[in-house]
Each structure stands twice: as structure tokens, then as C-alpha cells.
Design goal:
This protein is of the alpha+beta class. The chain has helices spanning 3-12, 17-23, 61-70, 73-95, 135-144, 148-158, 160-164, 181-190, 212-270, 275-305, 312-336, 346-383, 405-434, and strands spanning 26-28, 33-35, 100-111, 192-197, 202-209, 385-392. It has four domains: 1-47, no CATH class; 71-96 and 403-435; 99-244 and 387-402, 2-Layer Sandwich (Bacterial polysaccharide co-polymerase-like); 250-381.
């Protein structure tokens, strides 16, 4: 639309219908007036008129102008890639605090443990809690070095929080003074690194701090606390080992005492100390009585052959033979009579006695074995020692290792450029589809 047409439209706005009719070009006919709409200005592209905004002004006009200025290829590359990259370079090369690394290499060892000592459990690959130190101990130590318990003890011993909240540390690397213990633990995990070599069990422990002295101080304090943890677990393992042996001895002794009491009660009830010995003795008596009976019968047969069986001697022999038969029958009934409910029978007593005697012998053997195991456990506990052996100690760092300024700045720049390039390609694709 031309400026003249727009000015003509402005002059028309606000006029009365009569004025508008005078201003609009008309064709005079005979009977009526016709408005010539062909010469009216084109109002399709005019700004929308509102009561709050004058003609030609939009409430979002300045935003559209700024967006049009910002989202050009050159300007967007400048604002979204080059400028943030320069700010990143200023931070990494001028503001970021140096971080120094203290590294230790160590291994957990346990000595003084007998491989033949088992304590009724099948132990293979034993660790602090039951035998020789293997890789498991190293993983326990590595996990403890990143635990909240270690952070809490370091906070109480060396003031760990104060070492990470100093004003000399740059804002983005510094820990907040209002940080909770959980925040301190997360910050600690970002500044320590633990690696365990599986086959050998070697632990590589690294600590990052903002001065060489603080790095060494924190690493030494962490290892002191870890040694205390190892000692605590080792002492508890020794105590548990001895207590388990003592518990087994108590159980075995109670079982053995119960077996002895049952045996004694049965002997008092039956009046038989040893059915086997009693049976042997009864058998011997029966044999002796049988022998005497045979001698008396020979004598009686001699009298019968001499026709003197009715004499006083013959009657005496028959009475003696009858008495011996009664004794033999009594003794045989004591061994194994016709009535199995008779508690005086040695045969029925031998079954119960054998069961009680077997239980007594077994419980006695178990009790003696547990006593020997207890002695071994006490000896093992006295000789066993678990400790951390440091074979590569760290010296005072002479140069900072973090941050890696050049590589981190390059990664930041490459990331910004990649995001900008991706967004630009997406936007260009959308614009192409609008056409």
C-alpha cells in the first residue's frame, strides 16, 4: 500500500458519513450517487486498529523485531556459540580453581588364619568375616571410602566441610555453607575415586582437593578412619568366632548332660547298671547251676541203679535237683522270659540301655569335638590380624591435575556448536515446509 493511499485512509477515519461522502470520489448519475470503490485504498494490509494502541503500533512489535534480529544465522551463532564459548574460556582459564590429586595404592591383608579351621561352615574365598583376605575385602574398603559414615567421621575429625567451602574456591566448584550431610556426601563422591583390580584386590584411592596439603590431609584422614573400620570388623569377627565356639560347646555339653541324666534315671528305675554285664553274669550262673545239676543227676542215677533211690540220700538229691531247676528257670526268665512286659528281663532292658548308651557316646564325642574347636577358635582369634597395606604412598602434589582446562573448554564449544547446528537445521526445515 502506498503512503498516499494510507494518508487518504487516515483522513477518512473519524469523519461523519456526510463528510465521508464528500471526500470519497463519486460518479454523479441522473437519479443516485455511486461510490467509486475502485479508487479506495487497499485496507487488507493495514495494521489492526484497537482502542488501546494507535494505528501502526503492535504490543509485540519490539519483540518481533528483537527475535528477527537475534535469530539470524550470524547473530545466533554469535549469541549461542561464540559468546558462551568465550565465557567458558574466561571461566576455565581465568576463574576455575586448581584441584590437586593425592593417590594411594593399597591392599587388604589378613594373616594368622588356619585354612583347616572350619567351624562347621564351608568357607571358600573367605574374607574379613571368616578367613583369609581376598578381593571381597577390597570391595568392602572401596565401598566404605564413599560412604556417608566416612564423610561424617571426616567432618568430625578434620572439618571436611570447611575445606570445601573456602572463599578462595571459585563459586561453581565451592560447596555451599548451608549444605546438608547428604549434599556433602554427594560432593565427596565427586571428589574421590576408588578402583579395585579384581584379580589382585589392589585398591587405587584418589582424593581431589584445592591445595596439595589438603589433598594429602584428607587422604590420610580417610585411611585412618578406614583402618578403624577394618579393626572394628576384625575384632567383631574374632569375637563372633569365639562366641560361636562357646555356643556350640554349651549346646553339646547340655546334650551330653541330658544323655547322662537319662542313663542314670533308667539305671535307678531298673536297678541294673549294665544289662550286658548283668546278662553275662546271669549266663555264667546258669552255666554253673546246670553243671551242678548234672553232677547231682549222675549221683541220683547211681543210687537208682543200686536200688537205693528211696533212701534219704536219694530224696536229698531229688530236692537239690529241683531247687537247681527252679534257679535255672528264674535266671532264664530274667534273661528272656515268655512275658515281654516284665521290666526285670535283661533282654528288654538291653534295647533301651543300648539306645541311651549310644546317645551318651555320641553326645560325648560331639562335646569333645566342640571343645577342641573352641580352643582352635581362641588360638586363631589371638593370632589373626587384618590390616590395610599401602605399597604406593602419595607424595605432595606439585601441579594441579584438574580442571583440564583446554579439553573441557573444547568439549563445551563443540557441544554448543553441535546444538546450534542441530537447531538451525531444524528451523530451516520448518521454514522450507511453510513455503
Amino acid at each position: 500500500m502506498s503512503l498516499n493511499a494510507y494518508a487518504q485512509f487516515r483522513s477518512i477515519k473519524g469523519s461523519s458519513p456526510a463528510d465521508m461522502s464528500r471526500q470519497l470520489p463519486v460518479k454523479r448519475n441522473t437519479m443516485n450517487f455511486e461510490v467509486d470503490y475502485k479508487n479506495l485504498p487497499d485496507t487488507k494490509n493495514l495494521p489492526r486498529l484497537t482502542a488501546d494502541h494507535p494505528v501502526g503500533l503492535s504490543p509485540h512489535g519490539w519483540r518481533s523485531s528483537f527475535s528477527a534480529f537475534l535469530f539470524t544465522k550470524k547473530n545466533s551463532l554469535l549469541f549461542f556459540v561464540i559468546l558462551p564459548s568465550l565465557l567458558g574460556a574466561a571461566y576455565y582459564f581465568g576463574i576455575a580453581s586448581n584441584q590437586y590429586v593425592s593417590e594411594r595404592r593399597m591392599i587388604v591383608r589378613t594373616i594368622g588364619v588356619s585354612e583347616r579351621f572350619d567351624m562347621s561352615e564351608n568357607r571358600s574365598g573367605q574374607s574379613i568375616v571368616g578367613g583369609d583376605s581376598l578381593t571381597q575385602d577390597s570391595y568392602i574398603v572401596a565401598n566404605y571410602l564413599e560412604s556417608p559414615e566416612l564423610v561424617r567421621k571426616l567432618e568430625s575429625s578434620i572439618g571436611l566441610r570447611s575445606l570445601f567451602t573456602k572463599n578462595t574456591i571459585d563459586f561453581f566448584s565451592r560447596l555451599s555453607r548451608e549444605a546438608s550431610l547428604e549434599d556433602l556426601n554427594e560432593y565427596w563422591k565427586q571428589h574421590v575415586d576408588t578402583y579395585v583390580d579384581g584379580p589382585s584386590g589392589i585398591i587405587v584411592f584418589s582424593v581431589r582437593a584445592f591445595s596439595p596439603e589438603e589433598a594429602v590431609l584428607i587422604a590420610n584422614a580417610a585411611l585412618v578412619v578406614t583402618n578403624e573400620m577394618i579393626d572394628t570388623i576384625s575384632e567383631k569377627a574374632k569375637k563372633d568366632l569365639v562366641q560361636r565356639g562357646e555356643h556350640d560347646v554349651d549346646i553339646a555339653m547340655n546334650d551330653y548332660q541330658t544323655a547322662l541324666d537319662q542313663m542314670r534315671d533308667y539305671q535307678n528305675k531298673t536297678g541294673i547298671l549294665d544289662p550286658i554285664s548283668s546278662a553275662k553274669m546271669v549266663s555264667a550262673v546258669i552255666s554253673k547251676l546246670t553243671e551242678q545239676k548234672l553232677q547231682l543227676m549222675v549221683s541220683l542215677k547211681s543210687l537208682e541203679a543200686a536200688k537205693a533211690a528211696d533212701t534219704a540220700r536219694g530224696r536229698e538229691l531229688r530236692r537239690s535237683i529241683q531247687a537247681i531247676d527252679d534257679q535255672i528257670t528264674l535266671r532264664r526268665n530274667n534273661l528272656a522270659g515268655a512275658d515281654p512286659t516284665d521290666e526285670t528281663q535283661l533282654s528288654s532292658s538291653m534295647t533301651e540301655f543300648g539306645r541311651l548308651e549310644t546317645r551318651r557316646v555320641v553326645t560325648q564325642a560331639i562335646y569333645e569335638a566342640t571343645v577342641r574347636n573352641l580352643d582352635t577358635a581362641k588360638s586363631t582369634a589371638l593370632k589373626r590380624t587384618t590390616f590395610i597395606s599401602i605399597f604406593s604412598d602419595s607424595h605432595l602434589p606439585e601441579k594441579s591435575r584438574y580442571p583440564d582446562r583446554l579439553s573441557q573448554w573444547f568439549i563445551l564449544t563443540a557441544l554448543l556448536f553441535t546444538v546450534w547446528m542441530t537447531a538451525t537445521l531444524i528451523w530451516m526445515s520448518i521454514e522450507d515446509h511453510r513455503v
